[in-house]
Amino acid sequence: MTTPSTPTATDRIPTPKSPPPDILRCAYMELVVTDLAVSRDFYVDVLGLVVTEEDENTVYLRSFEEFIHHNLVLRQGEVAAVAAFSYRVRSPQELDVAVAFYEELGCRVERRTEGFTTGIGDSVRVQDPLGFPYEFFFDARHVERLAWRYDLQGPGALVRLDHFNQVTPDVPKAVAFMEDLGFRVTEDIQDQAGTTYAAWMRRKPTVHDTAMTGGDGPRMHHVAFATHEKHNILAICDKLGALRRSDHIERGPGRHGVSNAFYLYLRDPDGHRVEIYTQDYYTGDPDNPVVTWDVHDNQRRDWWGNPVVPSWYTDASLVLDLDGNPQPVLERTDASEMAQTIGADGFSYTREGEAETELPAWKQGEYKLGHQL
Ligand SMILES: [Fe+2]
Known about the structure:
By secondary structure, this protein is α/β, with parallel strands linked by helices. Helix content is 15%, strand content 30%. The chain has helices at residues 36-46, 94-104, 171-180, 230-242, 310-314, 337-342; strands at 23-33, 50-54, 58-62, 72-76, 81-89, 108-112, 123-127, 133-137, 160-168, 184-190, 196-202, 210-214, 219-226, 249-255, 262-267, 273-278, 291-294, 317-319. It has an 18-stranded mixed β-sheet that branches. The longest helix has 13 residues, at 230-242. The radius of gyration is 20 Å and the shape is globular. Mean pLDDT is 94; it is low at 1-7. The protein binds fe (ii) ion. Fe (ii) ion binds next to strand 9, strand 13 and strand 16. Fe (ii) ion is lined by residues 163, 165, 222, 224, 275, 277.
């Protein structure tokens, strides 16, 4: 067994006296891509997202149930990265609240009444204390909600933006800050020594609007779109196979332990990770119980016990500061989840209390790095 490193003395971000803005939901991501035509082909022609508007440098995309202008902005640029994780707030007044909250923390705050992207009005962008570019807005142009347009929806239709996933070196520090921002933990992964490897946090009453994943950061792990049902995800796999583009598939399809959702992870032409996700659960009651998973539980990341590929643990996208420069990446000092579960001296179980040697002989070692052909 690996001895987990002593949890770092988390240098907690102070709780502002100003209240946090009332956040409704994750709303859109602005993604910098290095070849707009190639990325447009992937997101529009392969995944079927709807083009709301486009020009020579930018494509504004939405999912079939969305009524605001976009859920994803693809912007041509030099370095593939995330320019904004954008959240919708409850009213225009909440932007003043956001400004006060982040200014008290000493963060860089920028407000544009005309918005940072087409179709979105008055907006606040901040470089948050964790190093992520966050945006808040209420005012947005409404567009046709295509939920009933089955004539336009393919078998793998993406119907909602579901969540973001952020990589950060100190998960407890990030979770405490996000709780100050009004988010609540739905599930997390820990070990018995008290190291936290990841946490899923929500505003809307689903499992999450964003997750904090332990690793070198700040980086973006993935952006996730929801389908109606599991078969829609299988249809996306079939389509990628038929196009001889199965190399976009990084992991899955499968059933998550955490979140109970059905999933598929894809990598876009720049390597940005996109999750296709469906059928998690309702979390809207105030006493919704927190679920904690053991990092050694083989079923936490995949309910069927399929091992996680190493790239899923190590790769993530850079994030930009408000000037458009990539944020420096800080190394995680706490134990890594990959080392705990697939490292040379890691261990894991399918049935708690059983040693790995009690697994069938052909299954032993499956979670060790380098075991897979
Ligand atoms: Fe996810």
